[in-house]
Design a protein that fits this description.
heterodimer, A: alpha/beta, 3-stranded parallel sheet, two-stranded antiparallel ribbon, B: 223 residues, alpha/beta, Beta Polymerase, domain 2, 5-stranded mixed sheet, 4 helices, flat
Chain lengths: 215, 223
């Protein structure tokens, strides 16, 4: 997968072999895109908020044993204005969902979302309940989903590495450029309102459509 | 500790006009409970807490129960007069017929309080309160003024079962949002239709998912 992510990125002005050769001579050659993506992926600051038991695993990931600082993500920010990454760590109840979307709206671009654990990606064991949202991707775009109940810290680290690869493979121009470089892309996502029986709307059709089940 | 029958007679002696009955529990635990009338509930609760021998100073748990309307069919023997021709002559003859009659026993909502005594180290004493029905007369006196620990649990019962506790200091929904109209723990509650994506449906979920598909096909739901 890494090949396909990096592959397109490598067709640059400088030939790969020439770059290595220049490196041997003490000359460092790079592109703006490479430098920009390297900067973005190397200090993804997560937002400091936890929703349920997955948050305990998230805390463990940041501590000495698993040491998230190795990935430049140890600085958990208590404000959405300073954060790059939202880790949806746990069950999103319908009562909490509007606040989660509002916090996401308050984050500055470029911003990323990791949906951590069974509840955040689908509702998990509470899927058929009346009070739990069946996956946060109904309202906000999710970059990485991690299954597990709860996922182990290694799984969260894997999600960070996947996200870093995703950022590394992004082009700054063209059709596939990231959202923050696309003026047409939506910057604010509609916050659901508390209805009489359910959240209104029950999902954001711009972000989420019913996945097709292939049998 | 006193048995439930003894507690019942103690309450009746101490609180004039109190209606108390014993609800037996046939299980091996034999944890019988006391059904008390709502109109004297405050005085009864006060007595249970302040009585020297019972001293039920700790309310451990309050919970709600929803009892649906029950349809009872019973066979009754009825005599009625039937016209009949006997030997070619029209006569009115009395006949006894067995008839099945159906009547509906109104359902009710119930609040169950589990009381203990920290001072006397005994309990639990289970006290029940019932509403008149489960639609419009759903009021019960709040026991929060007697046991403060009832506050949040009575709010939860108000939220999920819809029992209105009169005299409660702060009766608001506690789990669901304020705009919410339903009472999810009632047995006739219908959850919102968000069964659009069920990868592994079965039983009730399969039924709801199929209903949702039919709705989408009919154009009543978007996706």
């Amino acid at each position: 997968m890494a090949e396909s992510l990096f592959g397109a990125n490598r067709q640059m002005a400088v030939d790969e072999n020439l770059k290595i050769e220049l490196g041997k001579q003490g000359v460092f050659v790079t592109t703006i895109q490479e430098l920009y993506n390297w900067g973005r992926r190397s200090s993804i600051w997560p937002m400091q908020f936890g929703l349920a038991c997955c948050a305990i695993e998230m805390i463990a990931t940041t501590m000495a044993r698993y040491d998230l600082a190795r990935f430049g993500s140890e600085v958990f920010r208590p404000s959405p204005r300073q954060a790059d990454l939202m880790i949806i760590s746990g069950t999103v109840t319908k009562k909490m969902a509007p606040q989660v979307v509002r916090l996401y709206n308050q984050m500055a671009e470029p911003r990323y979302v990791i949906a951590m654990g069974a509840c955040a990606i689908s509702g998990g064991p509470f899927k058929q309940g009346y009070n739990v949202l069946k996956g946060i991707d109904r309202y906000i775009p999710v970059d990485v989903h991690i299954p597990g109940c709860p996922p182990r810290p290694e799984a969260l680290i894997q999600a960070f590495m996947t996200l870093q690869k995703k950022i590394d493979g992004q082009h700054l121009t063209g059709e596939e450029r990231p959202r923050h470089l696309d003026e047409q892309a939506p910057g604010e996502f509609p916050v659901p309102e508390f209805g009489e029986h359910d959240l209104d709307p029950p999902s954001n059709p711009g972000t989420w459509t019913v996945p097709k089940i292939i049998q | 500790m006193k048995s439930v029958e003894e507690i019942k007679s103690a309450i009746e002696a101490a609180v004039p006009g109190a209606t108390v009955s014993v609800v037996p529990n046939p299980a091996p635990t034999a944890q019988h409970s006391l059904l008390i009338g709502a109109e004297r509930a405050i005085q009864i609760a006060e007595f249970l807490r302040d009585d020297g021998e019972l001293a039920l100073d700790f309310l451990s748990n309050v919970t709600g129960v929803d009892w649906l309307d029950k349809e009872i069919s019973e066979k009754v023997k009825v005599t009625r007069q039937v016209p009949k021709s006997v030997d070619g002559v029209e006569q009115i003859v009395e006949e006894t017929v067995e008839e099945t009659r159906k009547r509906v026993e109104l359902g009710y909502l119930e609040a169950v309080y589990h009381l203990y005594s920290v001072a006397k180290k005994h309990g639990p004493v289970v006290v029940r309160l019932r509403t008149a029905n489960r639609t419009d007369q759903v009021e019960l006196p709040s026991l929060t003024p007697i046991w403060r620990s009832a506050e949040f649990q009575e709010r939860e019962i108000f939220d999920l079962f819809g029992i209105v506790f009169t005299g409660h200091p702060d009766l608001r929904r506690i789990l669901m949002w304020d705009e919410f109209k339903d009472h999810p723990m009632r047995r006739d509650y219908v959850e919102p239709d968000d069964f659009e994506y069920e990868p592994t449906p079965h039983d009730e979920v399969l039924k709801r998912a199929q209903e949702h598909k039919a709705k989408v096909a009919a154009g009543e739901a978007i996706q």
